[in-house]
Design goal:
- By secondary structure, this protein is mostly beta strands.
- The protein has one domain: Porin, CATH 2.40.160.40.
- It contains two helices and 16 strands.
- It has a twelve-stranded antiparallel barrel with strand order 1-2-3-5-7-8-9-10-11-12-14-16.
- The protein is globular, with a radius of gyration of 19 Å.
- About 12% of the residues have low confidence.
Length: 289
């Protein structure tokens, strides 16, 4: 489950230098799993910018790291997310920890951001169903410092509705509609206002191989910043993001999924480019029933 819509820019190697080794690695023969047949199925719960609607399987935990760097602003964002099933696949708890650098607002310093605590309910379907729906509610804790631009300065509530649709055996689509409200958000001067953010996302995943996927994601956000006492300023961002992901399966039940994407700004965000890096470790923590 991804909470941040984007992260940051160009690494030193060329894109070709990064993609070719990734594609070659993806074609290596898979290590057979022992008593973990589900991992031989297609990669499912490793979306990038658009949240999929598949909760964690019972007895399986996932650790997710993402890193985004923007080309123009040089800002970057690292997030660590951990997802746990609660009693069964119906209920999932997770948290997201952000570490970021906002050069434009803080002279290039790095700082901790607002932590998200998330609960998601598997309302319909699962990873084997044609359609799955998993509404999520999150509490955004004011752990970042709003005085330096690294937090909202108040507790916020976020809701998101992810829907996943298996169009065919080789094509899956994910859809998101979300909103965040922070009643007493603050700016760097301590001025307060209620802010509301809206987001929409859509992705198409081509299962070129059960362990190698080609992805195309689209995200649009409308966010409000505090412009003064009880005044807000609207900001919009739109990105189209092609990417790839691949998986390594191990006899222990561990699955490692690296990935890379290149978010490209369109519309009001035209001209902005970023590089998005993804790494997931998923493994059993107990004997599933």
């Amino acid at each position: 489950m991804r909470l941040s819509i984007i992260g940051m820019t160009n690494p030193a190697p060329s894109l070709r230098a990064l993609l070719l080794p990734a594609m070659l690695l993806a074609l290596l023969p898979a290590t057979p799993l022992l008593a973990q047949e589900k991992k031989e199925g297609p990669i499912q719960d490793n979306s990038f910018l658009v949240e999929e609607a598949y909760n964690q399987e019972e007895g399986v935990v996932q650790h997710i790291s993402t890193f985004t760097r923007y080309r123009e602003s040089k800002d970057w964002l690292y997030t660590f997310t951990q997802e746990w099933p609660v009693f069964s696949q119906k209920h999932q708890f997770s948290f997201t920890l952000p570490w970021q650098r906002l050069g434009a607002s803080l002279d290039g310093k790095q700082a901790f951001g607002d932590v998200a605590l998330n609960y998601r309910y598997q309302l319909l379907g699962d990873g084997d169903a044609k359609v799955a729906i998993s509404p999520r509610v999150s509490v955004m804790l004011p752990t970042g410092d709003e005085k330096t631009g690294y937090g909202r300065g108040a507790t916020g509530i976020q809701v998101n509705l992810p829907l996943s649709w298996a169009i065919s055996e080789s094509l899956v689509s994910h859809w998101n509609v979300g909103a965040t409200r922070t009643p007493n958000a603050k700016n760097t001067d301590g001025e307060k206002a209620a802010t509301q953010d809206l987001s929409f996302g859509q992705s198409f995943i081509w299962l070129a191989h059960p362990r190698f996927n080609v992805m195309l994601e689209y995200v649009h956000t409308r966010s409000q910043g505090v412009a003064g006492p009880d005044r807000t300023q609207l900001q919009t961002a739109t990105y189209l993001s092609p990417g790839i992901r691949w998986a390594y399966n191990f006899p222990s039940g561990l699955q490692v999924v690296p990935g890379i994407a290149v978010p490209i700004g369109v519309g009001a965000s035209r001209g902005e480019k970023a590089v998005f890096l993804y790494l997931s470790f998923e493994h059993p923590f107990g004997k599933a029933k």
